[in-house]
Amino acid sequence: MIVSQNLVKKFEDFIAVDSINFSVSKGEIIALLGPNGAGKTTTIRMLTSLLRPTSGRAIVNGFDVISEPKKVRSSVGVLTENHGLYNRMPAKEYLDFFGQLFDINSHDRIKRVNQLLSHFGLETSANKRVGEYSKGMRQKLALARAMLHNPSVLLLDEPTSAMDPESAHLVRKMIKDLQTEERTILICTHNLSEAEELADRIMIIKDGKILESGSPAELRQKLLGPPLYEIQFSNRFDSLNDRIAGLVDIKNVTSNSLIFSCDNPQEIHPLLIELLLNDGLKVVFINEVSRSLEKIYLQAIGNGRGNDQFSGWFFPGYCVSRDCNREFRW
Predict the structure, then answer these.
(1) Contacting residues for 176 by C-beta, under 8 A, at least 6 apart
(2) Global pTM exceeds 0.85
(3) pLDDT digits over 35-82, tens only?
(4) What is the rounded radius of gyration, in angstroms, for the C-alpha atoms of the chain?
(5) Ramachandran region of residue 49, left (φ > 0), alpha (ψ -120 to 50) or beta?
(6) Rounded distance, CA 220 to CA 222, Å?
(7) Whole-angstrom distance, CA of residue 235 vs CA of residue 256
(8) Of 46, 62, 174, 312, which residue is 20 to 30 A from 10 by alpha carbon distance?
(9) 10, containing H or E segment
């Protein structure tokens, strides 16, 4: 649905987007992450044929962004960070106006407008002026405008920017509901939890270059190493059985917990629990240690603390680093 081949955008001597290559399949939700000025919005503008690439090529829904800009624009729905809504127009009239711009006939236009207002929970406010809407309502109206012509590709730039938590939750749910086998969604966001919740695949961009691309699980494995697991005990222990130390890679031990990694958890975990029980330890739980997308992101853009996936990790109840072997309780 989206193909970028050596796409470049220069503004005089400044390279905003530097030879990026990626593709997005039907039914995928892709999150494009990066710091301010990384090239995210510029990429979106080129994919909508609003900004002409300096060089390279981009294909959206089978249409070339340079030679077929009108067909590209008719295929995409765009939600920009600054919506440009017409505050004096009632919401229903506003959507009808844009339906006319999309050349939707009167019967289908009225039906589509009513469907979208109902879908986004705006039907009771359909005749209110847009200027009277809350931020969350305005965001939903802008998303309804992007969906008006039932596009095959949605390009969303900061879809929940400056929204309260409840409204942001509603918009994220709506975005997930819009995902179908025939619709592709590309999201630019600074909200890492949002990206992790919505995206099938994540691309991290900095200085106009794509640094990393993959699913959250793939990026964790690549950038942070094997998963870490924690076992919590209800009683205290002072030393490890030698067989346990040989079974897993021990990362940290406290008076009532054990953190480790292993290559085959499906086989190793049952054996490990059996050994611990035989040693008289009472196992409360065994969980994979949560490793956030923030850690992946910082590692990718070069602000992490090195390649040791355990260095500087914080776990509930204690803090461990290479510089501190003590246990801190709170």
Answers:
(1) 29, 198
(2) no
(3) 888 999 899 999 999 999 999 999 999 999 999 999 999 889 998 877
(4) 25
(5) left
(6) 6
(7) 6
(8) 62
(9) strand 2-11
